[in-house]
Amino acid sequence: MALPVTAAKDFISGPRVAQAARKLLDSCPLPQLCEALATASAEDAEPLVSALEGLSEIEEVRALFLGDGVADFLTRGASATEPRLRLTVAKLLAHLASGGEASVGRLLDAGLFNLCEPLLLDEETGVAETAAKAVRAGVAVPPGQQALVASSGSLTEVLLRRLPELPDVQRIRVLALFVQLGRVAEIFPLLEQQGAFEKVLGSFLTDDLLLKLNAVELMDALGSYELGQEFLARSNVPQKLEADLLDPYCDGSVRLCVTRLLGFIAGRSAAAAEQLLRSHEAPFPQSIAGLLDSRDVAARLCAIHAWATAMLQTKGLGFFLRWKPMLQEMVSLISATQNEIAKGAMDAWAIVLEVRAPEDQDVELHSGSLAMGFTKAVAKEAPESYKQYYLPFGHMRKYDELKELVATLARQEPERRSRLMSADFMEMPNQPIGQFQEILRAELKKVNQFACVKHEDVFLGLRRLCASCKRLSPEEVEPMAKKIRGLGEEIVHLDTYVRLNYMGFQMLTEKFDACLGTSGSPLFVSGLHCEPFCNIRFDDILILLGLAWARWRSAQAPAEQSKDATWKPPESFIRNTSKYWVQPDKVVLLKTRIVEHLPYLIFGASQSEQEKLLEPFALLDLEYSGGMDSQAMNAYAGTMEESQLLSSVYFDSPDAISYQERIRREEGARLVRFRWYGENNQEDDKEIYIERKIHHEGWGGAKSAKERCVLPQSDVFDFMKGKFDIEAYFAKLAANGTKEKTIKGMKPIAIEVNKMIQEKKLQPIIRTSYYRCAFQLATDNKVRISLDTQMSLLNEYQANGHPNKPWCLVGTDTLQRDDIYRFPYAILEIKLQDVSEAPLWLRQTLNDIGAIQVHKFSKFQHAMAFLHPQRVPILPHWHQDFDEWHKAKEERKLRVGKGNLSAMLRSEPAVDDLAVPNVSKIVAPHGEGHFLKDMENLDPKAVFANERTLLHYAEKGMYVAAVAVVVLHQGGRYKVLGGLLVAMTAVYYVWILVAYFQRLDEIKGRSKVVKNREARLDWSIGPLLAATMVSVVLGFSLYKGWHGLLQRHELA
Asked: What is the first-listed, main subcellular location in coarse terms (predicted)?
């Protein structure tokens, strides 16, 4: 036993190449390895299994697995009592079947595919799923299709015969295999002829509720591809599915599945659409209406998608456009408060709205023009090791194929179609447009696989580094920091990969639509949000990166902070705050830079709780190669997030008193907001923080501060209306053991805010919602960095306030399009308490990401300026940049579809050229490197200083003027000198007056007065002239005095 195990360990520890395989087999033949595995202990079995799997991947060795000794082992292992051996056999079969047509042929000749039947029906899920991989790999080649499906007595026929006697779990497993095999176009009609899909449908239409629930995912999978949709649209399947919607006790997941399937069917078949959409009271449209009224996001998205797909048919289009309440509801969803709903609604409308291409355009494509902006972005931002996994553009062969496909399709279309939707795509699997879809699917599979594998690689790498950071010798500190920094760079590259490929798919399909007059791009792009590469969990790897750096710092300086410390927000904040705008594509880079120096601060989670991500089962071993089912996706979703949802409702009067006080920066200006963390489903015990912000000018000595108290949500409405007993509430807190210091801090704030609301008639007017991640020590509030992303601004104003509960808008309330505003930048706040300036590493990071420091930026002021422009007489200093940005985006929308198609295709589309405003800014002085966006203010102190300078210079001129008058009255030769002094004084006064007005213009035209010390407002020769004037007066006075003294001495 020792020899096979030792040889196997040597093999798996090195590169798995043919030379290593021959070395292993020379010392221990394959039958000997198999026999050793059959009798090995659990500890010895692991290297033996890994060695056999590695050997099965090498082409030169695969034929040896079909020898008598190994084949006997596989046969005996398939029926072994130990699950470990059965799983090993299934894995070996899957590896051998994936070796191509020759390998599958050898397996068929040896009769080893017969082992798949018992393995597919194995009680162990892992064994059965691995056997299913082997079958799927076998039918991917013609010999396997013939033997496993088409021939008499094939594996599928045997499974179908055994289906009635199988328990529910094995039955669902076999039916799932049929659905997966049906994705192969050649296999589907064979399985349909055998009755496999009728069995799938029967498992869903049964009265057995448990079996029906298990079959929901089967039906979803069957309806996810074209041939499955065609099958469901036949005979009386829609009527059978429709019957489930009439059942008042229908399970929620079943209702969602049926609605989704009927949407596919209605979009696929005109006859089915006629039947399903016979009236507004029919089950299908009523189900859509009911799901739209649900509070569940998944239910509403299902209804939106079913509505859009049903409208692909002319019948569906006319039916829903005439149903005015439904139409109004779908229009209002575009401005829904939930981003997922708003995005889903916009994608649905993009599918429905007609997109016409100009009729007089040619369709010539020019190499490299399709996505010039994309290729330049990839060349600039992607490392070499990633580029081969990006979408192929420009010089690559597949782009040439795509170019030819589009041109061929255009030539085949005698009449340009004004409305070519995804329903048309389903009818042309063998046409160029279908081939284009195949290319998209192949590229999408490649992108998904690379993104998921890279994420898992980074995740596991960080876990290993976290374990290695527990004990570091002085020599290991710097190499370990280099390794952690390298994985941080990988996270940034992965973020760039996801972002650019999403843009690439969007640009590619949009150009295809523009050339052919189709509108399939919105449907395809909306589906990208469900793809694995768009659902990569950056939270997990960013938190792990922060933990790795925290452990690395602790290894150098233990007790950096307590692991068990959990941060709680204090009742009062007095800090110096600077705010920056950060472009969304720089957010991940910024986070990786910050966690190198400061740990993540997750609300309510200590470092020990964050380290749960280091547990062995934190990341499931998922199969990324195929579509991920809902259970797998849910398991992959994780539980800890590095950014938490934060929402604030700001209060102001209808005439915006608080806004005007704040933007004028009046001393003592106050602002009231109610804030909560996480989701708010109107739970009575939800903590709502009542906050009052107060502004103090620097010359007064006092500092601006934010103070708060907390109320349960059940009391907020009464508090707003002045009906809340504040004294009784805090007495109850004291009785429940709340510290007296805490009560003394919160009670005055509650009284003050309540008084302000009643006296100034304040009411909810603006809501801000965003995801915030923070970085600081959990035990120290001196330095804190927070980053707000995906900020949405919402109009909370109602004419007479909120007369009834709830106290603020909820998810089911209807909003207009102009009631919501999405801010394009991420907002970085650096908050310092008893610290003079930001550290050097942070200033360097701000320079690297091109951050824009915005003087006195306010989310409240921005929301008021764009959601209530009629109420604000003064606009923020950054308003003009955003106003011009909005106008530019509107102009682009108007230009779409109006230009020459060939010219458009020859153009170079820039990636994200209007993603954010083009902000007027300057480089920060003193070598800080980042940008500044300062308010264009007129500093009164600078104006008064200019006036004082004019008066001081005029005073010096009066001295010379007085001397000139005296000299003129002397007569004789002094008159010439007096005249010169008068002329010089006149010129001097003209100069100081011109200089005064020039300096005043500079002060009014400057974006800042104090901060840029290099730009001078004075005139360097001014003091010299003033000194000259005074010297003239002093010299003349001394001369006259000395001359008079001499004359008196002579007379004496």
From this structure: membrane
